[in-house]
Design brief:
Blueprint lengths: L4 E6 L8 H12 L3 E6 L12 E5 L7 H14 L2 E2 L2 H6 L5 H7 L8 E3 L7 H8 L3 E6 L9 E4 L5 H11 L2 E5 L9 E7 L2 E8 L18 H11 L8 E8 L5 E7 L11 H14 L1
Parallel strand pairs: 1-2, 1-3, 3-4
Antiparallel strand pairs: 5-8, 6-7, 6-8, 9-10, 9-11, 11-12
Helix pairs in contact: 1-8
Bound molecules: adenosine-5'-diphosphate and magnesium ion.
The site of magnesium ion has 2 residues, from loops.
């Protein structure tokens, strides 16, 4: 019997280890799939018509236009999961504003376009925020993510430095990330499978992740609202939530491109992902 081939899109070198990688490869191969890791920048490899699962393409945040073009190239020759429309929508975190407009609870967010001359202190004062987070609109792994107090005389300059180079998000600091913690809600092929708690992480920091935790009814409601409107073609998603100012879980991030899925914490999630791939192949 020939084993159907599958490419798993990654990047090399990986900026940090991918704990899901070996587990997933082994499980896919166990299911009879000839799965191989291929860096998205490995141009020669992408001409062959092989279905592709996007996973650890974590360096695209530094080459967004190239990655965008890669999505088209990869999807032109074979199926790509998640599909291009889903990937493209979630590359830029202005999707938070779109979710907010749809009534989904999200972290309050102001988008400062690159070159915006407004000082951080003025933007924050207008919203009544005195403890804020600034971060690139296109980011991962807490790249250039800074918590700033507005009475810190250096705060405006930190934000201005970011805005000079890129579109930036300003948000109130959510203190709930310290006690309750940010929870990553993992969704695979139509259902939420598990959650993990992540420790707060800012630029240069490391993140600790818990064992699998149950998803509360309130988290499920926010997660479900965030993913409403995506069709059956979506294979995986992660909705990162934390209690907002009024205690309701808000979406901090919706990861539809290259989320860690914390498969080590949930054999059931791994099984569901493999089954979803097998069915699509
Ligand atoms: N508004 C916020 N309040 C509290 N902590 C935040 C906030 N925004 C980001 N963080 C911290 O920074 C981390 C990275 O931010 P996030 O928006 O998840 O971007 P990414 O994971 O893409 O780098 C979060 O996991 C969280 O620990
Ligand atoms: Mg995150």
């Amino acid at each position: 019997m020939t084993r159907p081939p599958l490419r798993i899109a990654t990047c090399r070198p990986l900026p940090e280890p991918d704990v899901d990688e070996d587990l997933l490869l082994e499980a896919l191969r166990g299911a009879g799939i000839d799965a191989r890791m291929v860096a998205w920048q490995d141009t020669a490899a992408w001409a062959a018509p092989v279905p592709t699962l996007v996973r650890s393409t974590w360096d695209y945040i530094h080459a967004l236009d190239e990655f965008d073009a890669w999505i088209d190239r990869a999807a032109a020759v074979a199926p790509l999961w998640n599909p291009p429309s889903v990937l493209r929508w979630s590359l830029r975190k202005r999707y938070l504003l779109e979710l907010e407009a749809r009534g989904v609870p999200v972290t309050p967010t102001v988008l400062l376009p690159r070159g915006d001359p407004r000082p951080l202190s003025a933007v924050a004062a207008e919203r009544g925020w005195d403890d804020v987070v600034v971060k690139p609109e296109v980011g991962a792994a807490s790249f250039e993510t800074h918590r700033l107090r507005i009475d810190d005389p250096a705060a405006d300059a930190v934000c201005a430095r970011l805005v000079a180079a890129r579109d930036v998000l300003v948000q109130p600091y959510l203190p709930s990330v310290e006690d309750h913690g940010e929870r990553a809600l993992v969704w695979i092929d139509g259902a939420f499978t598990h959650a993990v708690r992540k420790t707060p992480r800012f630029a240069g920091g490391v993140e600790q992740v818990s064992d699998a935790l149950p998803i509360s009814a309130a988290e499920l409601a926010t997660g479900t609202a965030a993913l409403a409107g995506f069709g059956d073609e979506m294979l995986y998603a992660r909705v990162d939530v934390a209690p907002g100012p009024d205690g309701v879980p808000v979406v901090m991030e919706l990861e539809l491109v290259e989320p860690s899925l914390f498969l080590l914490q949930s054999p059931a999630a791994l099984e569901r992902l493999v089954a979803g791939v097998v069915r699509r192949l």
